[in-house]
Specification:
The chain is built from 26 helices and 15 strands. By secondary structure, the protein is an alpha/beta fold. It has five domains: 55 residues; 100 residues, DNA polymerase, domain 1; 144 residues, Intergrase catalytic core (hpI Integrase, Chain A); 94 residues, no CATH class; 236 residues, NAD(P)-binding Rossmann-like Domain (Rossmann fold). The strands form four sheets. The protein has a seven-stranded parallel beta sheet with strand order 9-8-7-10-11-12-15, sandwiched between helices. It has a three-stranded antiparallel beta sheet with strand order 1-2-3, with helices on one face. Helix 7 packs antiparallel against helix 9 and helix 22 packs parallel to helix 23.
Length: 701
């Protein structure tokens, strides 16, 4: 867009070229202040570029009814019939709220958020209670998907659903699954009653054993064919079968290994194979079963078990794997979940010792604190042993009570009571239990014990992070921010003495190591440091350099490339290899908004940051294809008030106020992006607008 800021009399105005009339025109800004005129001129350019963009891409808004119908046609061809039917029901709500004749460009983010609020007030047709947030989120997901497709199809410039947040998930955690004894009860009862009703489903013994050993969905079980079994490899293949009308959930095929019981169940069914059908479980005529729910509930009733659906067998498979300590990523692949987050929601609470083992670590407090624990319980007003109702006896402390009974700390009486009651029950004791008074402490106990215990407790961190380039600037600010959030830190940089100073400021649970990313041994030093830390969840590469080089000094540019390109690549590769081997992790690269455009005074710096941005995109694609829960985040800061901020001319106070952020502010926003495991983040967020304008402007020259 061709436009200039000019002064006409006492006021500033915009002189712009109108391509429709092929003439130059003026628009008064009605201000005599240069700063205000600059801001209004910038807004004028943004609106002008938006209009040009609409003309370039040919955005043609359509009515909502047209968009919905096209979206339903797309869903019918690419998704399951059940989900398409659900979206069709959702669309009725969309028409009622937005209006069937509303144009696609008239739907805003605020309208969608209001729609979510209104949907939350709807009632369940069966129970009459307000619908759950999870139901509203499914509705929002379908609506956002449609608007995203509208953006691709040219009906929208930018989907308004991008900025709409889902409601907080209120889905209940699954706790229903069968134990091995209950499975044996089901199988034995199914064997005893087999054939009582010839027209009903009578293959429950094989069905239960196979489903509890493979975790297949009910529909996957009913459409299972013997051709899906690799007898030599012992693998079951869940695949698309359009010829029989079966498509797996999400159209995702998968392979499930078969154990001994599963192979025995399949071989048992192989002996009953229908002559004209390949289905494992079939009706008398060889056709697959449509529904076996009522038959399963009759079996549950005969066994005296709680009424449930066939899906509980699949959940039993996942629950038993979690109880055996199988990794969540493996359970995700076996069950066919689309993300490990869903798997963790259902089964993480069943992992043995995932909480108790963390608390157990606090028990090792050294011989000093161990000797201070009393060996007996003081007098209390309840009877710890049978026959001692007078309360005069002293009860020996058991394991869990000893962990709770810590001198000089204010303990809740309820916690002590529960711990003692649990151990008393296991030891055959009979607690009468009313109240547990605070313990009487000896005056000889050191006064610094609470400090000692608290210092020991703060060493128990659940997450570890390595920051490369932490001696100053954003890296140093990130170290302080993550330390406040409870991360165990490993700091690396060239200036070891500076790292030592930071470590003393943060605390003793921070580890430092020297590294020069330009040296050939940088990768080996990083890998050794990570091994010494034990387990690392997050790696942040903040090391970088840049020079204002309008004179094209080749040495300055080579220094920039050696740090920002070669050094960055080596460490990013090393971090990604570690995360792929570990099975999870988070890589964060600090690039710059300079990657968006070339800059005459720092060409090498801008080019090196563009390399980092594209390289992180490639690593993110690699992580996605691996199927592992590995996140790659690119952070693009603008001006941050550090030693790295170099400009060819001083910034005005207004520009500094608008565009320059403090390291602390930058660190807080980066930490937020890390918590969200975002793919990309601008620092500060107002640079998203700057980046949008930069992409619209023509290339330099």
């Amino acid at each position: 867009m061709r436009a200039h800021l000019v002064r006409r009399g006492n006021y500033y105005a915009i002189k712009y070229y109108n391509p429709q009339t092929s003439t130059w025109s003026h628009r008064s800004l009605k201000t005599s202040k240069k700063a205000t005129a600059d801001l209004r001129f910038g807004q004028f350019l943004i609106e002008g570029h938006k209009k040009e963009l609409l003309g370039t891409f040919g955005v043609e808004p359509v009515e909502l009814r047209v968009l919905v119908q096209e979206f339903l046609d797309y869903m019918g061809a690419n998704r399951s019939d059940a989900y398409t039917k659900l979206v069709r029901k959702f669309s009725e709500k969309w028409f009622a709220f937005f209006g069937a004749g509303t144009l696609s460009t008239a739907i805003t983010s605020r309208m969608i958020q209001r729609y979510a609020t209104a949907r939350k007030k709807d009632k369940c047709k069966i129970k009459g209670t307000p619908i759950r947030n999870a139901t509203v989120n499914r509705d929002l997901a379908a609506l956002k998907h449609m608007l995203h497709k509208a953006e691709i199809w040219g009906y929208l410039e930018i989907s308004p659903g991008r900025r709409v947040e889902n409601l907080r998930d209120d889905g209940a955690v699954r706790t229903d699954y069968y134990t091995e004894e209950q499975l044996k009860l089901l199988v034995s009862n199914a064997v005893a009653t087999r054939g009582a009703h010839p027209l009903n489903f009578n293959e429950w013994p094989e069905f239960i054993v196979l489903d509890a050993s493979t975790g297949l969905r009910c529909e996957e079980m009913l459409f299972l064919e013997f051709s899906d079994i690799d007898w030599n490899m012992g693998v079951l293949h869940v695949r698309n079968k359009k010829q029989v009308g079966f498509i797996p959930k999400g159209r995702r095929e998968r392979r499930v290994p078969l154990n001994g019981p599963a192979m025995a169940a399949l071989k048992s069914m192989l002996g009953k194979k229908h002559a004209k059908s390949d289905f494992v479980f079939h009706q008398i005529d060889g056709a697959p079963w449509k529904s076996i729910l009522e038959s399963f509930r009759s079996l549950l009733k005969r066994c005296g078990l709680k009424r449930s659906g066939v899906q509980i067998l699949r959940h039993t498979f996942g629950a038993h794997l979690a109880q055996k300590g199988v990794d969540m990523a493996v359970i995700r692949d076996l069950l066919g979940h689309h993300s490990v987050t869903l798997t963790e929601k259902y089964y993480a609470h069943l992992v043995p010792g995932n909480l108790s083992s963390a608390v157990e670590k606090l028990q090792s407090r050294g011989p000093v604190t161990k000797s201070l624990l009393p060996k007996t319980l003081p007098k209390m007003d309840f009877a710890p042993f049978p026959g001692t109702e007078n309360g005069d006896a002293e009860a020996p402390l058991t394991g869990s009570f000893e962990r709770c009974y810590v001198p000089e700390l204010a303990l809740l009486a309820g916690v002590a009571k529960l711990a003692y009651a649990a151990d008393s029950k296991s030891a055959g004791l009979r607690p009468v239990g009313v109240q547990v008074p605070p313990p009487a402490f000896s005056s000889s106990i050191p006064q610094d014990l609470p400090v000692l215990l608290c210092g020991t407790m703060t060493t128990q961190f659940s997450r570890s992070a390595v920051i490369i380039g932490a001696s100053s600037g954003i890296g140093e600010a990130l170290a302080h921010q993550l330390n406040r959030e409870g991360w165990r830190l490993g700091l690396m940089a060239r200036r070891l003495e500076r790292l030592e100073s930071i470590r003393q400021t943060i605390g003793p649970n921070t580890f430092v190591h020297h590294i020069d990313v330009t040296r050939n041994d940088a990768t080996a030093i990083f890998e050794t440091f990570v091994d010494e830390l034990g387990s690392v969840d997050l790696v942040i590469i903040s090391a970088g350099t840049g020079h204002v080089n309008p004179g094209l000094d080749v040495e300055l540019d080579l220094d920039t490339v050696s740090v920002n390109v070669l050094g960055f690549m080596k460490l990013a590769q090393a971090a990604m290899r570690y995360f792929l081997k570990r099975g999870r992790g988070h890589l964060v690269g600090i690039t710059s908004v300079a990657a968006l455009r070339g800059y005459s005074a720092a060409s090498a710096y801008a080019a090196s940051k563009a390399f980092q941005a594209v390289y992180l995109d490639g690593l993110r694609d690699l992580a996605t294809k691996s199927g592992l829960p590995i996140a790659v985040t690119e952070v693009q800061p603008g001006f941050v008030d550090t030693a790295m901020m170099k400009t060819d001319r001083p910034l005005s106070p207004l520009v500094r106020w608008l565009l320059v952020a403090s390291p602390e502010t930058a660190a807080q926003q980066i930490a937020r992006a890390i918590r969200r495991r975002a793919k990309h983040a601008y620092i500060t967020r107002r640079y998203a607008l700057v980046a949008f304008v930069a992409r619209l402007l023509p290339r330099p020259g």
